[in-house]
Amino acid sequence: MHAHSERSVALSAMKQRTLLITLTGPDRPGVTSRLFTVLASFPVTVADVEQVVIRGRLVLGVLVAYAGGPPTGTGGTLGAMWAAVERVAEDLGMEVELTTGTDSKEKRRRGRLHVTVLGNPLQPAALAGIAGRIAAAGANIDRIERLAHSPVTCIEMAISGGDPDAMRTALTAEAVLQQVDVAVQRSGLHRRAKRLIVMDVDSTLIQGEVIELLAAHAGCMDEVEKITTAAMRGELDFAASLRERVALLEGLPEEVFEQVRGEVVLTPGARTLVRTLKRLDYRFAIVSGGFTQITDSLVAELGIDYSAANTLEVADGKLTGRVVGEIVDRPGKARALERFAAQANIPISQTVAIGDGANDLDMIAAAGLGIAFNAKPVLRQAADAAVNVPYLDAIVYLLGISRDEVEAADAEDGLLPLPPD
Predict the structure, then answer these.
(1) How far is CA 409 from CA 2, 149, 282, 401, 403, in A?
(2) What number is the average pLDDT over the span 347-372?
(3) What H or E segment, with its residue span, contains residue 66?
(4) Hey, which residues are catalytic here?
(5) Catalytic residues (predicted)?
(6) At what angle do helices 256-263 and 292-302 cross, to 10 degrees?
(7) Nearest-angstrom CA–CA distance, 112 and 97
(8) Which of these, 107, 167, 178, 191, has the minimum number of CB atoms within 10 Å of its CB?
């Protein structure tokens, strides 16, 4: 073994010591540069850096590592380095703290999770409850970052030492008590690699149910609404309930489609969600137990990549009360997700499914991340995450995208940072 290699092995085997330097005070240009310029004169390496600015106040933490005893060399002793850092802090009008310890990097990296919390508003009691559950599970909060402040408040916690399944169970229970939304996801590249979004349409991408809009024109709204509600709760077979409801539409003129297309209202934040994710080269799909006569216009309007829905039969200019072809039901939605993923050459593990009712269960279970959006209890219990705020674009926060990033991208494209659409 070469002498250089032997020295490298010996150094790596030595116990690593760490120094945590924390600067706090008014934010100004050049703080980070000044600190690292001083540290460059000493035989230390940078192990970690965290910096945050809250209302003009900077908190900068730098963890430096060195082997063996106190660092010595051309830059001087540990005392000299500390004195130099104190001079920088004094010049900048800031406070500085120094903490010594040993390198615990391996311990901190095990069981890394992201916990996303959404509230409208987000109360201190909710964060106390969430943090308490994390501590009770023996996990540690390593970092907290705000992702959004309007129209909902969203924070993301990076935690270590937690079992994902146990943490999800505990935090879901706490979320119900505190009336907030919580999502628990594993850290790592796979979280950033999700590239196909598959979304339900009725009561998810749009407000309300298309079949009820059609029923209003047929004069059978109450009857159809009751059947729809039971089906979404999982009390009725979806395919059978769809045929029963469609039969009530017999005789409607096909011009009704144009009227209903004008009555469809997108869920607040729908345009922002699709626009933001497509900027990131996500593929977007919709799958619906509704009807192609309506979903086709949504595909064209929003730039959707893939779609699947049922088709109402029309003869002699009128609805026959029947559906053409195979019905897109609960299993059909899951098959559509798999088909879209194959067409996009994207692994199932990199898909996100979003829905609200029982007929979305199979799709939610099949996806890499299943999200219940203002959903029925049966779906909320089965999903990986639940979002109960009325803004569809809140889903981008679960993917690690902040509100500031969304608005900055809109500004670059010449769009004003308006409230969610």
Answers:
(1) 52, 17, 15, 11, 10
(2) 94
(3) strand 57-67
(4) 200, 202
(5) 200, 202
(6) 50
(7) 27
(8) 107
